[in-house]
Design a protein that fits this description.
The protein is α/β, with parallel strands linked by helices. 20% of the residues lie in helices and 24% in strands. The protein is built from eight helices and twelve strands. The strands form three sheets. It has a seven-stranded mixed beta barrel with strand order 4-10-9-7-5-11-12. It has a two-stranded antiparallel sheet with strand order 2-3. The longest helix has 11 residues, at 177-187. It is globular and about 65 Å long. It starts with 6 loop residues before the first strand and ends with a strand.
């Protein structure tokens, strides 16, 4: 049996005040039973699964595709790489494969965790900043998606609200048209010339048909395991019909 000398949690602690993805409702929690009735405490939680550290399933974007329960354990737990690209990309930069491969060795069939340093801006973290976290993060485009297909990545995760560039997603564009204009001014181009409408959320739409899924809002102690290879496991609910699942992600060293 394999043994590991150290386990590192790559997940944000879950709490009701965590930010959900743009446009989704906040979580809510209530006590059904409590000490006043001398009964065991029982809590009811109402939440989407797109809050905190979570894994998306193909059915999140593709009707009839695989749900959370369809993901096999040998896909979720496997050798992989954790790469720090925080020195390569900043606000609104596009992440390219060479940013990753210049830092770590990525093998065919790996799990891949991408660290921008953005987890420090998530709710409750040391530099909490909702606008920066959701609307100004780096992100990938079609070139990164094609590279992941070629590498047959098992699953990947990012310490941001989405692996897609925030200007290449309909919810973020709709929520902050002022930032769309700011981005266009910065790059000197119309947004649709950079991210054509038919390619919105491309790291979802191009990869889900090939069962390459991803985790969003990676965090926890990820700073302790940057630029190294190890076994990485994601542990979502075995959720029949689930489009996503709150999950724990662990690096095994």
């Amino acid at each position: 049996m394999s043994s590991f000398s150290n386990l590192v949690d790559l997940s944000h602690p879950w709490r009701v005040s965590l930010w959900p993805f743009i446009g989704l409702p906040n979580a809510a929690i209530s006590d059904i039973n409590g000490s006043a009735t001398r009964s065991p405490r029982v809590q009811q939680i109402i939440t989407s699964m797109h809050i905190g550290t979570h894994l998306d399933a193909p059915v999140h974007f593709i009707t009839g595709a695989g749900d959370m329960a369809s993901l096999p354990l040998d896909q979720l737990v496997h050798e992989g790489a954790i790469v720090d690209v925080s020195d390569k990309v900043k606000d609104w930069d596009i992440l390219y494969p060479e940013h990753i491969t210049s830092k770590v060795d990525v093998k065919e069939g790996d799990v891949l965790i991408i660290h921008y340093g953005w987890h420090h801006y998530y709710s409750g973290e040391r530099e909490e900043n909702q606008e920066k976290y959701f609307f100004r993060s780096p992100g990938g485009d079609g070139e990164l998606a094609k590279w992941m297909l070629k590498k047959k990545i098992r699953w990947f995760g990012v310490d941001a609200g989405s692996p897609d560039h925030p200007m290449n997603m309909a919810p973020t564009r709709k929520a902050r048209p002022d930032l769309v204009k700011e981005y266009e001014k910065k790059v000197g181009k119309n947004i649709d010339d950079i991210f054509p409408p038919e390619g919105l959320s491309i790291l979802h739409t191009m990869l889900f048909p090939h069962n390459i899924v991803h985790a969003e809002n990676v965090g926890g102690e990820v700073d302790k395991v940057l630029n190294r290879r190890c076994t990485i496991g994601a542990f979502p609910w075995n959720f029949i019909g689930g489009d996503a699942s709150i999950c724990r992600i662990i690096a095994f060293q």
